[in-house]
Specification:
Layout: E1 2-5, H1 10-19, E2 26-29, H2 46-61, E3 64-74, H3 95-105, E4 113-123, E5 129-140, E6 156-158, E7 163-164, H4 170-176, H5 178-194
Parallel strand pairs: 1-2, 1-3
Antiparallel strand pairs: 3-4, 4-5, 5-6, 6-7
Helix pairs in contact: 4-5
The structure holds inosine 5'-triphosphate.
Length: 196
């Protein structure tokens, strides 16, 4: 079975490729195909966006597709940046700009609780689709630590690892992360998907 990873985010791609090792699939990336029409991530939830990215990619390319919609929900900011995590500091904002905006919003804030959320959707061209969720709780630091990972990783302290995701290697992060947990659910049900 060919499975297209429907993401343009190199950080996600690296993690998903590592987690999918041993799955009975041939992985393809969007870059293996010509340009595909832009998919607007205008859903109100991670579920909506993940399903939209997976189903439209599967239909357009004619192969099974896996999409990940994810983000950081900060308790003191009423769940922001949430579904807007990639574009918190504006369209095409860099990870650095998003992190700076988060630090500014959290200045003087005592409650640092936050959770990463991930919804993975797998869809096939004939229309079937399944979604899986994972989350990971932690705290937002007052300054970044570590240069591994991507996005908000250097600001996210993970109590289970006693370090930030920016200080964790791929395997450590994958064991406890929102994405790792969603993938564990995928692995559990993958037989279902293989017979579609
Ligand atoms: P694709 O839609 O092409 O997959 P994207 O980056 O636009 O890429 P999302 O809309 O799902 O994807 O936004 C996810 C954002 O949430 C991402 O850009 C990061 O800012 C943040 N994020 C998600 N998972 C993360 C992780 O494991 N570590 C750090 N930041 C993460």
């Amino acid at each position: 079975m060919i499975l297209v990873l429907a993401t343009g985010n190199p950080g996600k791609k690296r993690e998903l490729m590592a987690m999918l090792e041993g799955f009975p699939v041939e992985i393809r990336n969007l870059s293996d195909f010509g340009p595909i029409p832009e998919i607007k991530e205008d859903g109100a939830t991670f579920d909506d966006n993940a399903y939209k990215k997976a189903s439209l990619t599967a239909r357009y390319l004619g192969f099974a597709a896996m999409a990940d919609d994810s983000g950081l929900e900060v308790a003191a900011l009423d769940g922001a940046p949430g579904v807007h995590s990639a574009r918190y500091a504006g369209d095409n904002a860099s990870d650095g700009a998003n992190n700076e905006k988060l630090l500014a919003a959290m200045e003087g804030v005592e409650n640092r609780k936050a959770a990463f959320k991930c919804v993975i959707s797998i869809a096939v061209p004939t229309g079937q689709a399944l979604t899986y969720e994972g989350s990971c709780e932690g705290d937002i630091l007052r300054e970044p630590r570590g240069d591994k990972g991507f996005g908000y990783d250097p600001l996210f302290f993970c109590p289970e690892l006693q370090k930030t995701f920016g200080e964790a290697d791929l395997e450590e992060k994958g064991r406890v992360s929102h994405r790792g947990r969603a993938l564990t659910e995928v692995r559990r049900e993958f037989d279902k998907i293989l017979v579609w």
